[in-house]
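**Protein record**
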Amino acid sequence: IGANTTCEVLTVVRSNDRFSTYHKSSLDGQVFLTNLSEMESARIEYSGYKEGGSLYYEYRKGENISESADQSYLFGYAQFWFKIRTDSDGNRSMIYSYDDEGYQQYYYYCEDLAPYLNTTWVPSSPGSCSTSSLSWHSPALSSASLSRVNVA
């Protein structure tokens, strides 16, 4: 996801069964980069972030989809992602690296992958899987196929 790319929905996959969905915010993300503490400035400088990116608010299943004052935000692009939390008055708390300065490996997708990630995937041919090519079948997506999947 580039510095000038804006997604309506952003999916962050943290592991094989954990992900978060964010929606494009109506706010300008640069507003959160003003009046930074010394620690926040150092954190942003350390990450290599220069400028650009988009702001997304966390979608919480079962809650109102619209943005509220008490909100979790994700701001950035490519490998430069920051989490920001606002309180009930809309004031931001400390800005943190979303992936713990690269310690965590997350995958960012410019679309809503929740329907695929909430689906049980089973091999289409049990016993015929190899590490260089896997084909998967899902009851919800009968034609889904993933090739060249690396298995660690």
Remarks:
- The longest strand covers residues 9-15.
- The beta strands are 9-15, 18-24, 54-59, 72-77, 80-85, 96-97, 107-109, 122-123, 136-137.
- The chain has a mean pLDDT of 75.
